[in-house]
Amino acid sequence: MHRVLLLLITILIISPAAMAQEMVATITQGTFKPRPIAIGNFHSDNPELDNLARDIPGIVRENLEKSGLFRMINSNAFVQTPNSIFREGIRFPEWRATGSETVVSGSVTKDSSGKSRVEFRLWDVVSQQQLIGMAYTTTSDNWRRIAHIMSDEIYKRITGEQGYFDTRIVYISEKGPSHKRVKRLAIMDQDGANHKYLTDGSFLVLTPRFSPETQRITYMSYRSGKPRVYLYDINTGSNEVLGNFPGMTFAPRFSPDGKKLVMSMAKGGNSDIYVMNLKSRKVTRMTSNSSIDTSPSYSPDASQIVFESDRGGTQQLYVMNVNGSGISRITFGKGRYANPVWSPRGDLIAFTRMYQGKFYIGVIRPDGSGERLITNAYHVEGPSWSPNGRVLTYFKETPSGDRRSARLYTIDITGYNERWLRTPNDASDPAWSPLNP
Amino acid sequence: MSKPVILSIAFHILIFVIASVGLPHFAKDIEPLEMAITVEIADLAEVNRAETPPMKPKPIYNNTDNVPDLIPLKEVDAGDVPELSADPPKALPKLSPPPKPRNKPRRKPKPVKPKPEPPKDEVKPVEQKDFTSLLRSLTPDEPEEQTTTAPAPETQENVSQVAGFAKQMTRNELSDLNRGVQPCWNVNAGGKDAHSLIVELWVFVNQDRTVREVQIINQRLYNSDSHFKAAAEAARRALLNQQCSTLNLPPEKYDRWKKFKYIFDPSNML
After folding, report:
1. Average pLDDT for B147-154
2. Which class would CATH give A168-432?
3. Which of A229, A244, A273, B134 is the right S-S partner for A286, CB 3.0 to 4.6 Å?
4. Nearest Cβ partner of A232 from B89, B115, B228?
5. What's the complex ipTM?
6. Quick one: CATH architecture of A35-159?
7. Domain at B156-264, CATH class
8. What is the per-residue pLDDT across B1-40, written as a single tens digit (0 to 9) for each?
9. Beta-bridge partners for A318
């Protein structure tokens, strides 16, 4: 009786408190638009550094705007000069009126050793706080890299994702008519600057592939008419032959740690997947099927490999465990699927699809769901991921008389913001580097 | 008086005291909030908005001298940042000819690409497109025009899922609140696992319906996960944005919305 009484009293006491619970509302619809950001020139007291104070933020503006995720506030709307910001700080209410969500301020000075010191701060205008502040000391010649590193920091702080601006792209430069095409290996910054040729065009080169962890690439070469795979270190310039691989049409891809290569080779009239240990040069066979298995790519956690195969009757994509077990098909669409490449984020696989005479670049989840075709053309292929898995680069070809015009493009994985990546000549087979060390 | 009688009286008095202190909340809930709806010929939009004063964005911070202290810069000696160079590959020594294979492997023919068709359109200069559809998807049978899919309107089902708040607010009032905040909530559609980044905020509102303060509830995740941090700041920014910081809320229900939990859930969008 007493226990029942106590229970009743407890319930009656608790009930009013329960009824005073906090109110809850849920919003499920928003918008997706470029974030407005104001980036003015940096402050400088030294006239010798005026160019840097202008050029560095200029590169940052270009990088962020090209990503498609940011919208630059027109400098005519700025409410403070670089000097005013440097001396007084950010006047947040006035900047809010410009419509910008964030503001970047900075300055350039010279230290006692003659090196340039570049500092910047990123401000949240809405919540009126500093988000990040960094300072870099380096030689003046390195100003472009500083701008790219700065862009990566701003990008990461606002989007939460790793940046991709301090990277490079290796590709095949093409020149001349179709029957006498000169192809050279070339490298440039991701924005097209600092362009260099790595081969002289005297022999055919194809499909460069970047290591995800190191500054090395593999590429196919047909020097003397024989297909060979080369391993080239961009930093040291060392170039070694991995071996002769008759029947190989694509260069191998690196494992995530850069210690192995996965490739397809034709032996005995059959094409299968193999893995080579770069240290021991031991080659292990992964698939054993009468079909054509080719174009393999590692997952970023190195637990799986995606490849294309016609074992099901048509050219489709398959995923298997890294030891060759558990092969399962992930694409079932019409047409043919090829060139799968696993995103560094691990959440998507990019591919080329051919259907009814058209080429498409698409993405799909590793379990085969959520396929989206994000661009198409007369001929488009060769997707390569930015190191943050947010942007794809690829090449498109259009016929033009007796020759073809080939260009590199980049596109956001949402399918928007397709941009032409300008090169001195025609270009194909791009490969995106990891972040520069 | 016998002891049981005294105990009984005391017990009844206790019950009476508890009921008088705790029960009035029940009485309030019985208020017929839906009475206005019985006027069937009324334009609900006008009825709900009649009492809404004109929106006047009010600055949150009046003190322009209140510049926060600068967070110390993170110094990076980028002197070791090498100037990138890529020298042409060094000349290779001559290779010995490979051993002749016993059997010449039959090469599988390279997959034949479809016969090229003349392009219908020129390569157009690329332009920045509006993000009218969050995730673009071409279908193979359609030309290269984006299929625009406007975000689904907030459904009855979504609105009815709110707890507590929904019991005191009408459906229209909740929709008005969200409709006012929606243009300012910028979602990172292509971000990794963006659909799962659900952000919960405490929102403190002034009586004039302007947002006074926003607190991110899951601080542990905020400090450890850069994706969540970015999503949480985007949600907070949506509420502090001048365009949206005066919330569409019924003034007469101030006691109910002066502090409330606001959940930003993008899973339906992505």
Report:
1. 41
2. mainly beta
3. A273
4. B89
5. 0.85
6. 3-Layer(aba) Sandwich (3.40)
7. alpha beta
8. 688 899 999 999 999 888 877 655 544 444 444 444 333 3
9. A307, A329
